[in-house]
Amino acid sequence: MRLAGRTALVTGSTKGIGLAIARAFVREGARVVVHGRRPAECAAVAATLGPAAVPVAADLARAEEVRRLAREATAALGGVVDVLVNNAGQPRVAPAVELAEADYRETLEVNLTAAFLLAQEIGRGMLARGRGAIVNVSSVNGTVAFPHRLAYCVSKAGLNMLTKVLAIEWAATGVRVNALAPGYVETEMIRGLRDRGVLDTARLAGRTPLGRLAAPEEVAAAAVFLASDDAAYVTGAVLPVDGGWLAYGFV
């Protein structure tokens, strides 16, 4: 019960890593706002998590929706958000020369600008109380480039720097800001890409020193650590949860 009595907003928490984080937070004693784009899906997922979960839907590609999410999540949690997890994100796979400007902009809006706006909106309450934790879910692609993923890589590199700047600005107030950098994770999306022949997960596992993809629950465990008092002296960190991917220089 490392998060007993805490409240949290976890974006993109109807599936994949976000859902695993929401589950782990509830298990550790937190009340959690479950977020996604579709109200029905948010409500269905929140129901599976029990009375500690509250659904709030919003489109993070629109600034006014992001700000509404911050307001409604704060109200649903009794006026206090102790932990913000900026997990929502979207991949965008295309050769750089063919990447549509609209797709580029939308990827940055969802993956980076929404995280900034939520940190700003939720962060005001944290700063006023002198406590709080923000966990941004970045990626190994915030550090290393993959072809055909220009918008995604740019957004995650920006998210890493957003994490560090907020961390040093807010450290003295008691608000901590950190990021997770997962490698490939065995989510529904990755399994779908594998089944369609888009990704060779066996090859990816072979490139990973630990020899396998991560389970969503392993990323969630790291999020619990960063959100809890166990990480009281950790801020401005970008923590790899990648099975050794970044440490291994061989392609």
Number of domains: 1
- The name of the CATH topology is Rossmann fold
User: What is the CATH class?
Assistant: Alpha Beta
Low-confidence stretches: none
Number of helices: 8
Mind describing the biggest β-sheet? 7 strands, parallel
Give the CA-CA distance, first to last residue. Answer: 40 Å
* Name of the CATH superfamily: NAD(P)-binding Rossmann-like Domain
Question: Can you describe this structure?
Answer:
With 251 residues, this protein is an alpha/beta fold. It has one domain: Rossmann fold, CATH 3.40.50. Helix content is 45%, strand content 15%. It is built from eight helices and seven strands; from the N terminus they run βαβαβαβαβαβαααβ. It has a seven-stranded parallel beta sheet, with helices on both faces. Helix 4 (101-129) links the parallel strand 4 and strand 5. The radius of gyration is 17 Å and the shape is globular. The termini are far apart. The mean pLDDT is 96.
Topology of this structure?
Elements: E1 7-10, H1 16-27, E2 31-36, H2 39-49, E3 53-57, H3 63-76, E4 83-86, H4 101-129, E5 132-137, H5 150-170, E6 175-182, H6 188-195, H7 201-207, H8 216-227, E7 238-241
Parallel strand pairs: 1-2, 1-4, 2-3, 4-5, 5-6, 6-7
Helix pairs in contact: 1-8, 3-4, 4-5
